[in-house]
């Protein structure tokens, strides 16, 4: 076994996964503190991500007497994530919390809609309504993936800042937006290329870590820019602009163009033509026609909503560019870099494939540039997919980014690939929430996800992912209580797993116990509810909290256990009944209540207390009526089957004064005979080995018998 | 951040996500008009550590308030209940723990720092969780109750703590919450909607007990929180299971004054919540307008927070006013004593909400 050869008292655990080539190995040191050699290790799962490792030392040999060390020890190892996740644990929990409400709302809307439409959501008016709900859901989930606060915008804009330093975007959000673009947002179907362009502008920085990107290029150039005096002589200036232009970051290009030296007052006169050309290119760029309803803040271009309008504008714009390209002013421009650089930008605008390929760094960027300048009228996933394939041939990537796999799956209309990519790269949270987008957006996906699979135990893939996510939630002490929301949306296995989840919660923590009970109430799980209460009752009882134990067993209406513990409780009451110690019992008896609530054998305590009260009030000067009441209480207590046998003699002994009441006998003939029978029964029981002798004077039995006999005689005479 | 407008008053709500669970939280006395501090008992589930933290809240009317972290002290065990004394000379913060101890800290409001003073943790104090703790008006007498059925009186004298056992039920009764009624009297609460009135001049047991017997059926009757108004010391306000809130007046001991709860048919419609009420406090803000006119027999308005995410003000015989309806439980709240329009509450989903009524 690896790791066992070490002499030190620290072992290490190294998880090995099939993908270990990609992910770095993580070491989990085990500080077990044993000095002698380790003989055996045993592993088991503790709560959540915690692994319980039992470390056994070699059993000490017979000869060497104990060195005082324990035979082993148990350590718990928290298997944290490998550390390179973009979402830390607290952030992840926040995501889990905030996605509950949109998810639950969508489910309830789905239910009410399908109830209204009586089967299928495909009937047009319902379908349209359903779309709106899904869009709302998607936007809400998307917004919770955004960081809380946008960085404050500085009032004075730095003219030299070309890259916005926004908070690092999340891959998860990028993936979510992709799904939203392709599956949900039907209104934007006609301008998907423009949405992809925006998407790349937002998330290009995500690829910078693993791939060369335009974003990283611009960031580099931004730093360089601070020290450069004459920008137009720096080849990087022109490269940066052509790259930015290739992926449609028009505002960046125009901003950079305006940094051109010919704009400076001292040079304006001498470089008039040059400046005119720069400005002409800048104006043309900022007037680029865009097939979209509106522009985002700070973006440039002119929007066209319908295809004919856009085509017309596009042709006109292209003609203007060609005209500029052939203009004679170029000959008068004697600044070589400016001339070549601007010509290069014009080539990009004209859609020269070689220039575009040079200006971009990966296939995704090239793909976007093709939309912009080569095939602006691309529509339909198939042609987009073809285009993407071509771009990948031109710019193959050595390391595939997880978002690329997702895009290719979407473009290839391959739901299985999309699901696999989501699951592999983005985990259970993404799966369970994204499934709603997929089923809404594609019939094929809907069939695939809702089909029940016998090899999955009869559940559909949708349900499977909900179950998995619920498992993840259940493994954490703070998120387990939202798992029921996902479990109850699973028709086949959900309730069964919810029962398991509730049974596994530790009852000793009162908050968790009450939470479990609340969940049972919400989902009407009455049997589990009373089982949990019963478990709690027994737990409290075992730990000496008798009151809580009795309370929870009463709540669970568990007469059987109440009767069992009653016996033990009476042992505990024992002889102390008649003395001051009984005061402690008042609280418990108060709790038991006089109502006909389930108290099992404990009911006796209540009656006993009442009897004791009436007995204490009886003394020589008491009117006979009060004494008679006490005697009645005694008889009914003795008749009650729940009165333990061991209390019979003490009860009778305590009531001697009632049996020997001066004025007249308080107990009639039949009652006396009954009491005598009881006494007889008691004498028989004494012969049994398990009989517990009451702690009373040795003559107690005989004096009670005498009193009863006397009373019998008096009663007969009276009657 | 949402700004809600309820029927009768304007309400501003600001939420602040935290990175840990919040067991309890309290306002600390105001230092200046613009800054206030909050003390909270936090529990970090990743490391299983708990701590006391001071957060400072900026309080300007124009900008949304901001919460900034001031200082934190790790506590030896998880906090079950938190209370602060309004002693002007020294600000004391007492916390009871899951492991049966009582911790005493002092806070420096100028620097926003916390300092440990003393603790009681010996075996004879409490066994297991201390459920409730309260500090007397003079700020130096504490009373603690536990699930083990013990009640202890702790005095802070000469810079240290000394304890005296008031009662030990040997586990036959478990207590949940406790509140001082006078320098020698206090009220404890427990299972079965039970309340006990204790008087130190008559030791040996509670001088008066109350147990509600109106709940039959499936509801569990536990009182989670109680409050006593300084101007009406004969009445104890209690909140617990099934949205139940009632007042127990010592002068009419047999019958509680029901304020809310699903167990009673005539009140069900008026109950803002139908699950556990975690905390109750008298709400001086609502009362301030017509406080004087209120008849002696009427129960003063009270604020509650509940398991089903409700923060509401209830008044005898009136429609409750709902201040917040959250998708998760509201575990605790505190009304600022100096500025009762402001409320801070802790949400189950690891966040804090600050409400301002105007």
Automatic annotation (TrEMBL), chain A:
Cellular component GO terms held in the UniProt record: nuclear membrane; nuclear pore outer ring
The cross-references to InterPro entries, in alphabetical order and at most eight, read: Nucleoporin_Nup85
Instruction: Report the subcellular localization.
Output: Nucleus, Nuclear pore complex
Q: Name one GO molecular function term.
A: structural constituent of nuclear pore
| UniProt keyword annotations, A-Z | Membrane, mRNA transport, Nuclear pore complex, Nucleus, Protein transport, Translocation, Transport
Which Pfam family, any one, appears in the UniProt record? Nucleopor_Nup85
Q: What's the main place this protein lives? A: nucleus
Q: Which domain of life is it from?
A: Eukaryota
| One GO term of the biological process aspect | positive regulation of DNA-templated transcription
Residue ranges spanning the membrane: these are none
Reported function = Functions as a component of the nuclear pore complex (NPC).
Q: How does it assemble?
A: Component of the nuclear pore complex (NPC).
**Family affiliation:** Belongs to the nucleoporin Nup85 family.
Name under which the protein is recorded: Nuclear pore complex protein Nup85
The organism named in the record is: Solanum bulbocastanum
Its organism's taxonomic lineage begins at: Eukaryota, Viridiplantae, Streptophyta, Embryophyta, Tracheophyta
TrEMBL record, chain B:
Cited InterPro entries: WD40/YVTN_repeat-like_dom_sf, WD40_rpt
Q: Does the keyword Repeat apply?
A: yes
Where in or outside the cell is it found?
Nucleus
Principal location listed in the UniProt entry: nucleus
**A Gene Ontology CC term for this entry?**
nuclear pore outer ring
- Origin superkingdom: Eukaryota
Q: Which keywords accompany this UniProt record?
A: Nucleus, Repeat, WD repeat
The keyword Repeat is assigned to this record: yes
| Name the UniProt record assigns to this protein | Nuclear pore complex protein NUP43
Q: Which organism is it from?
A: Solanum bulbocastanum (Wild potato)
Which classification does the entry list for the species? Answer: Eukaryota, Viridiplantae, Streptophyta, Embryophyta, Tracheophyta
């Amino acid at each position: 076994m690896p790791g066992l050869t070490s002499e030190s008292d620290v072992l290490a655990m190294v998880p090995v996964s099939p993908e270990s080539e990609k992910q770095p190995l993580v070491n989990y040191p085990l500080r077990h503190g044993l000095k002698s050699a380790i003989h055996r290790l045993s592993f088991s799962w503790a709560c959540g991500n915690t692994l319980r490792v039992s470390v056994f030392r070699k059993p000490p040999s017979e000869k060497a007497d104990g060195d005082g060390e324990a035979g082993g020890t148990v350590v718990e190892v928290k298997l944290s994530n490998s550390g390179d996740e973009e979402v830390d644990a607290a952030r992840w929990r926040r995501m889990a919390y905030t996605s509950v409400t949109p998810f639950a709302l969508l489910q309830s809307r789905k239910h009410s809609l399908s109830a209204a439409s009586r089967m299928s959501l495909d009937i047009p008016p319902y379908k349209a309504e359903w779309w709106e709900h899904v869009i709302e859901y998607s936007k809400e989930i998307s917004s919770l993936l955004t960081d809380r606060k946008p960085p404050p915008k500085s009032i004075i804009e730095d003219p030299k800042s070309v890259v916005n330093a926004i908070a690092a975007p999340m891959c998860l959000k990028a993936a979510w937006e992709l799904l939203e673009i392709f599956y949900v947002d039907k209104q934007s179907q006609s301008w998907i290329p423009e949405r992809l362009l925006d998407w790349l502008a937002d998330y290009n920085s995500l690829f910078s870590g693993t791939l060369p990107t335009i974003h990283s290029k611009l960031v580099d150039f931004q730093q360089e820019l601070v020290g450069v005096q004459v920008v137009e002589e720096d080849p990087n200036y022109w490269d940066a602009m052509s790259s930015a232009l290739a992926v449609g970051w028009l505002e960046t290009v125009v901003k950079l163009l305006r940094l051109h030296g010919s704009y400076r007052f001292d040079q304006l006169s001498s470089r008039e033509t040059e400046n005119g050309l720069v400005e002409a290119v800048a104006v043309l760029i900022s007037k680029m026609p865009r097939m979209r309803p509106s522009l985002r803040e700070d973006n440039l271009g002119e929007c066209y909503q319908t295809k004919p309008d856009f085509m017309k504008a596009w042709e006109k714009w292209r003609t203007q560019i060609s005209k500029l390209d052939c203009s004679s002013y170029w000959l008068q421009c004697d600044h070589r870099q400016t001339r070549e650089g601007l010509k290069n930008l014009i080539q990009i605008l004209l859609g020269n494939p070689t220039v575009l390929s040079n200006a971009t760094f990966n296939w995704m960027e090239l793909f976007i540039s093709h939309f912009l300048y080569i095939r602006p009228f691309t529509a339909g996933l198939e042609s987009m997919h073809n285009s993407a394939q071509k771009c990948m041939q031109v710019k193959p990537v050595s390391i595939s980014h997880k978002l690329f796999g997702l895009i290719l799956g979407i473009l290839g209309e391959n739901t299985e690939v999309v699901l696999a990519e989501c699951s592999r790269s983005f985990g259970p949270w993404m799966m369970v929430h994204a499934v709603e987008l997929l089923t809404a957006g594609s019939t094929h996906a809907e069939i695939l996800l809702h089909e029940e699979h016998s090899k999955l135990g009869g559940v559909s893939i949708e349900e499977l992912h909900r179950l998995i996510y619920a498992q993840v939630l259940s493994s954490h002490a703070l998120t387990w209580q939202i798992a029921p929301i996902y479990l109850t949306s699973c028709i086949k296995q959900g309730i069964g797993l919810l029962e398991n989840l509730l049974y596994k919660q530790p009852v000793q923590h009162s908050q968790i116990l009450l939470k479990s009970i609340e969940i049972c109430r919400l989902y009407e799980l009455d049997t589990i509810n009373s089982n949990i209460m019963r478990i709690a009752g027994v737990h409290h009882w075992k730990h000496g909290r008798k009151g809580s134990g009795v309370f929870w067993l009463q709540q669970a209406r568990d007469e059987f256990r109440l009767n069992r513990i009653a016996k033990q409780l009476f042992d505990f009451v024992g002889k102390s009944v008649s003395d001051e110690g009984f005061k402690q019992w008042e609280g418990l008896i108060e709790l038991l209540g006089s109502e006909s609530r389930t108290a099992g054998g404990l009911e006796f305590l209540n009656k006993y207390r009442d009897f004791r009260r009436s007995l204490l009030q009886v003394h020589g000067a008491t009117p006979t009526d009060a004494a008679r009441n006490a005697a009645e209480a005694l008889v009914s207590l003795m008749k009650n089957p729940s009165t333990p046998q061991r209390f019979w003699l003490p009860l009778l002994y305590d009531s001697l004064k009632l049996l020997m009441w001066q004025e007249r006998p308080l107990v009639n003939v039949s009652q006396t005979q009954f009491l005598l029978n009881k006494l007889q029964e008691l004498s028989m029981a004494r012969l049994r080995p398990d009989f517990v002798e009451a702690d009373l004077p040795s003559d107690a039995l005989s004096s009670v018998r005498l009193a009863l006999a006397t009373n019998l005689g008096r009663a007969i005479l009276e009657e | 951040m949402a700004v809600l407008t309820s029927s009768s008053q304007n309400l501003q709500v600001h939420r602040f996500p935290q990175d840990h669970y919040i067991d309890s939280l309290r306002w600390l006395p105001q230092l200046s008009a613009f800054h206030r501090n909050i003390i909270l008992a936090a529990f970090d589930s990743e490391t299983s550590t708990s701590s006391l933290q001071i957060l400072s809240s900026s309080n300007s009317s124009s900008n949304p308030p901001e919460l900034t972290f001031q200082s934190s002290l790790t506590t030896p065990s998880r906090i079950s209940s938190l209370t602060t004394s309004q002693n002007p000379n020294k600000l004391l913060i007492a916390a009871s723990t899951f492991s049966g101890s009582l911790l005493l800290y002092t806070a420096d409001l100028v620097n926003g720092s916390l300092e440990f003073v003393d603790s009681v943790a010996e075996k004879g104090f409490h066994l297991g969780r201390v459920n409730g703790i309260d500090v007397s008006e003079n700020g130096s007498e504490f009373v603690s109750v536990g699930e083990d059925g013990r009640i202890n009186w702790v005095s802070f004298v000469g810079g240290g703590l000394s304890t005296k056992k008031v009662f030990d039920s040997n586990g036959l009764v478990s207590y949940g919450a406790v509140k001082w009624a006078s320098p020698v009297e206090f009220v404890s609460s427990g299972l079965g909607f039970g309340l006990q009135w204790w008087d130190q001049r008559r030791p040996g047991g509670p001088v008066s007990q109350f147990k509600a017997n109106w709940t039959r059926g499936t509801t569990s009757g536990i009182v989670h929180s109680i409050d006593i108004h300084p101007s009406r010391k004969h009445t104890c306000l209690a909140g617990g299971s099934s949205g139940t809130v009632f007042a127990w007046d010592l002068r009419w001991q047999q019958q509680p004054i029901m304020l809310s709860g699903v167990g009673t048919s005539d009140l069900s419609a008026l109950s803002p919540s139908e699950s556990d009420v975690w905390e109750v406090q008298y709400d001086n803000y609502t009362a301030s307008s017509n406080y004087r006119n209120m008849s002696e027999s009427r129960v003063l308005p009270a604020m509650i927070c509940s398991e089903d995410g409700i923060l509401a003000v209830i008044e005898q015989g009136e429609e409750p006013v709902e201040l917040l309806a959250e998708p998760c439980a509201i575990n605790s709240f505190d009304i600022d004593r100096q500025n009762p329009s402001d409320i801070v509450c802790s949400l189950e989903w690891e966040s804090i909400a600050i409400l301002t009524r105007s």
